[in-house]
Amino acid sequence: MKIEIMKANEAMHLEHIAQFQIKMARETEDLELDKEVVLKGVAAVFQDPTKGQYYVACYDKRIVASTLITFEWSDWRAKTIWWIQSVYVLPELRGRKVFREMYHYLKTRVLESSDVGGLRLYVDKSNKLAQKVYTAIGMNGEHYHLFEWLK
Question: Residue 19: exposed, middle, or buried by beta-carbon count in 10 A (0-12, 13-18, 19+)?
Answer without folding.
Answer: middle
